[in-house]
Design goal:
Length: about 280
């Protein structure tokens, strides 16, 4: 396994307006130098619906600035976390559906290969009609904008996830596997990956207890050794974004999360190379 390790935007800087996860308007550039200092390959950029016009992803000038800062620091933007679709799911109507090609175009311009689309919480698919609408929107957007892949973030069972992928049936659509969300929903990493691990194209590292909120990595319900075994079995070599527990500031608590991940990866490598 040769995955690239990065961080969810905002985890290394103080909270924006007290929000747990949000694009830090006005000081997002600061995080790139911090990420470089922590030895990270990438920042996963957040696109919120709230104040979307102020997000650099939403303008030509802003996208040029993202590329400039990424080039200066050596920290890429491999993925966009499109949280805007939590509030306005693409299957709800033409206005939200029309946003998806624009997000994909932004990904092309900043050289991000993945757009993470949440299909959970407020954006959970309520039934077959919504699923059919989602399939149509995805196909239309991907046909219109070549290049980036879409990684669906869900809290579905393995069987439901397989059925959703079969319904979509598109080579550029896969799964963003959020370790904490699946543990909180009562699912096992080994079982999940056995069912659809070949379709996982993006990973969020988080920890949550069953039915609970985010906690420090290793303190919740995620079977991290099982997860690493499953990822190795699938020869996963994509992006891993640390989306661990955060406090009001960011860097110090992130370092404890990254140290945990580093130990995991070292242990996995030693297991892999031991005859």
């Amino acid at each position: 396994m040769n995955a690239q390790l990065g961080v969810m935007q905002g985890r290394l800087v103080p909270k924006f307006e007290g929000r747990y996860q949000a694009h830090p308007i006005g000081y997002w550039q600061d995080e790139f130098a911090l990420a470089a200092r922590e030895g990270l390959s990438h920042i996963e950029f957040i696109l919120d619906l709230d104040r979307i016009e102020e997000n650099p992803l939403w303008s030509e000038e802003g996208r040029l600035e993202i590329r400039r800062v990424a080039a200066e620091t050596g920290v890429a933007v491999h993925a966009i976390c499109a949280d805007c679709f939590l509030e306005e799911p693409v299957w709800q109507g033409p206005a939200s559906a029309a946003m998806l090609p624009r997000v994909l175009e932004a990904a092309v311009q900043i050289r991000a290969g993945i757009v993470v689309m949440p299909v959970l919480e407020k954006a959970t698919l309520p039934g077959p009609a919504a699923t059919e609408a989602l399939v149509q929107v995805l196909h239309n957007a991907l046909d219109a904008v070549p290049g980036p892949r879409i990684a669906l973030e869900t809290e579905l069972s393995p069987e439901e996830t397989v059925r959703l992928l079969e319904a979509i049936n598109h080579p550029r659509v896969g799964i963003a596997y959020d370790t904490g969300n699946h543990a909180a929903a009562g699912f096992s990493a080994r079982t999940d990956w056995a069912a659809y691990g070949a379709n996982v194209i993006h990973v969020h590292l988080k920890d949550r207890p069953l039915g609970g909120g985010s906690v420090h990595l290793g303190e919740g319900g995620v079977d991290f050794p099982g997860l690493l075994d499953a990822m190795q079995a699938m020869e996963y070599d994509g992006v891993i974004t640390i989306q661990g527990y955060r406090d009001d500031e960011g860097v110090a608590v992130f370092r404890t999360q990254k140290a945990f991940v580093d130990r995991l990866l070292i242990s996995a490598h030693q297991t892999q190379t031991t005859p």
